Amino acid sequence: MKRAWLVLFGVSPWLTFAAEDARQFVDMPPAARTELRAEMLDFQTALYQIVDALAVGKFADAADTAETTIGVSAMGRHRTAPMNARPGMYMPNDMHMIARNMHVAGSELARTARSGDLARALGALQPVMGACVACHRSYRTQ
Question: Is the residue at 6 inside a domain?
Answer without folding.
Answer: no
